[in-house]
């Protein structure tokens, strides 16, 4: 798995209030929930997923969905694949696909946690 992919997983989980730090057999990790089914997802502190963890774009990128924190969440690979196969290809053309995405966006808004701002090392308070 690439460094950029691991970094992306960590960026997304930092904005999800279901993810909390855990100790996984002596290794620091994060545990949270799939945006779809609430199954337990685990990611090591270096961003390596423990199991099939994927980044889910709630509004599909093919329909103009962005990488904004409000539009991305972590999901089981099976749930992500199923949504893509059943709803993403029809997004905007069927009421069901719009309904599914709307529900996911609401769930994401409830789980959204803004990460604390990082201080610029060159910044000094007066």
In short:
This protein has three helices and six strands. With 126 residues, the protein is α+β, with helices and mostly antiparallel strands.
Helix/strand structural class: alpha+beta
What share of residues are in beta strands? 15-25%
Query: Could you estimate the helical fraction of the residues in percent?
Result: 25-40%
Output the radius of gyration.
16 Å
How many independent structural domains? 1
Biggest sheet: strands side by side, in what order? 1-2-3-4
The overall pLDDT, averaged over residues, is: 88
* Unreliable runs: 119-126
Order of helices and strands: HEEEEEEHH
Give me the number of helical elements: 3
Shape: elongated
């Amino acid at each position: 798995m690439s460094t950029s992919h691991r970094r992306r997983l960590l960026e997304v989980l930092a904005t999800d209030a279901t993810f909390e730090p855990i100790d996984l057999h002596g290794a620091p990790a994060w545990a949270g929930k799939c945006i779809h089914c609430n199954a337990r997802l685990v990611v090591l502190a270096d961003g390596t997923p423990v199991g099939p963890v994927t980044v889910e774009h709630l509004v599909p990128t093919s329909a103009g969905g962005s990488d904004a924190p409000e539009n991305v969440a972590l999901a089981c690979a099976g749930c992500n694949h199923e949504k893509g196969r059943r709803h993403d290809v029809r997004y905007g053309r069927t009421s069901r696909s719009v309904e599914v995405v709307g529900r996911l966006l609401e769930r994401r808004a409830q789980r959204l946690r803004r990460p604390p701002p990082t201080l610029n090392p060159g910044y000094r308070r007066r």
